[in-house]
Amino acid sequence: MTTDRIPVTVLSGPLGAGKTTVLNHVLTADHGLEVAVVVNDMGDVNVDAEHVAQQTDLGGDEEIIELSNGCICCRLRGDMLDEVGRLADRREFDYLLVESSGISEPIPVAQTFAMGFEDADFDPTDTYELDTMVTVVNAHSIWDAFDSGTALTDQQLEDDSGRVPEEVLLDQIEFCDVLLLNKCDLVPDDALEEIEAVLERLQPRAKLVRTEFGDVEPDEILGTGQFDFERAQASAGWKHELQHDHHHDPQAEHGVTSFVYQRDRPFHPERIAALLPALPDALIRAKGFFWSAGREDVAMGIDKAGTSVRAGPSGQWLATLPEAQREQYFAARPGLEDDWDEEWGDRMTRLVFIGREFDHDALIDRLDDCLLTESEMNDDWDSYPDPFEPEDRRELALADD
Ligand SMILES: Nc1nc2c(ncn2[C@@H]2O[C@H](COP(=O)(O)OP(=O)(O)OP(=O)(O)O)[C@@H](O)[C@H]2O)c(=O)[nH]1
């Protein structure tokens, strides 16, 4: 270790993916480190801590602190810091492993370690250094989902912010340094290759490791030095696609493909709202923003994660800003002005689609059918029924690129 801060590895992943199994494997492996463990559980029963306690010899080298009131990222952010602060006072260990609940959003957990937490007495950045974010995914349930067109995770719980498990799973995949593809024993090799191709597309930066019963080499997840907040945040495959303008992608591996759909004419709100829930099952991810006629004030965002799809107001067009403020953005971001339309400014649609063997041209046709026709361009758009929620979150649409 290059600093005297204690390195931290965070294990995330959906319920039942195998986080505890990985943890047990690492705790019993021969790595010469004294590891402290923070296990965060959902609900009343502390299954994890019981499990770990039963399966490992807690001969004094490992300590389990369980947090039982909810998930790390929200209610327990404060508590977790108290616990890791208390542990830090003792400093009798040289590595901290955090198992985060299946419904924890990874970004707030990482933020807590990487940047501390307002209002907390203890500043974790003095003592700890976030080393590796690991996401454990369940190869078997993904295979199942591919086969049947069902959700990528069978878990039912929503997290505190009301996000569905598939959205959280996609966040966990898109924000990590190492992806452990666990339960590989339950999936045939050709299916594993396809799952890997999908994961690589969703998260090109992470190291992908196949495991069976969590049998990962400890040095794949301990002391990798891979974590970097900015890089992790920029590493989602869809951001990559949007930035690099992969409008078409001929190099499909195992049928996994993606493309960017860009148009400067608005969608008819009812037509696009009807299409979104009817997108092909083979589409695993869709992100980006679109222009819905009649909502010239706000950019609509799309977030499709597996079978779940959400669309609603998510950003502000630069065109709605006062001139002086807009100029500041132009100055800060060269190239921004290039796509500026005389009449409509930056209002446009830019969506990225990632999926398995889906027909790009058919999807493009269906999207194009949602665009306003030549004659609809002359309609009074405000007279269209608007199926999207009225709430207007004022972030800039640009935040996505
Ligand atoms: N067949 C198979 N089963 C596994 C594998 N890894 C874990 N399991 C089993 O899957 C179940 C869930 O594993 P856990 O390690 O408890 O999963 P978890 O992610 O910690 O689950 P939560 O704590 O509920 O979020 C257990 O019964 C494990 O024995 C694997 O690679 N193959």
UniProtKB/TrEMBL annotation:
Pfam families: cobW, CobW_C. GO terms for molecular function: hydrolase activity; nucleotide binding. SMART domains: CobW_C. Keywords: Chaperone, Hydrolase, Nucleotide-binding. It catalyses: GTP + H2O = GDP + phosphate + H(+). Residues 378-401 are annotated as: Disordered. Gene3D superfamilies: CobW-like, C-terminal domain, P-loop containing nucleotide triphosphate hydrolases. Residues 256-371 form the CobW C-terminal domain. Signal peptide: none annotated. Residues 390-401 have a biased composition (Basic and acidic residues). This is GTP-binding protein. It comes from Natronorubrum halalkaliphilum.
